[in-house]
Amino acid sequence: MSMATMNTLTQIFRLVFDDDSLQITPDTTANDVDGWDSLSHVNLITTVEAKFTIRFTQKELLRQRNVGDLIADIERKISA
Amino acid sequence: MGREFVNIASACTSEQCRQGLAHKTAMRWIDAHGNRREYTFNDLEAESNRFANLLATLGIGSGDIFFTFLPKMPEQFFVFLGILKTRAICGTLFSNFGEDALLDRLGDSGAVGIITRKSLYRKIARIREKLPSLKHVILVDGDDDASAGIIGYARAMAGMPTDYAVHPTSPDTPSVLHYTSGSTGKPKGVLHRHGSLAGQMATARDVLGLTADDVYWCTADQGWVTGTSYGIIGPWSLGVTQVQYGGGYDAQAWMDLLAKERVTVWYSAPTALRMLMRDDEGIFRSADLAKLRAVFSVGEPLNPEVISWSRRVLKHDIYDTWFQTETGAIMISNRPGLDIRPGSMGKPCDGIEAAVLDDAGNRLSDGEQGSLCLKAGWPSMFVTYLGNESAYRSKFRIDWYYTGDTARRDSDGYFWFMGRSDDVINTAGHLISPFEVESALLEVAEVAESGVIGVPDDLLFEKVVAFVHLHGRYQPDKELEIKIRLHVANRASSIATPQEIIFCDGIPKNKSGKIMRRVLKARYLGTDAGDTSTLEI
Question: What pTM value is reported for the model?
Answer without folding.
Answer: 0.91
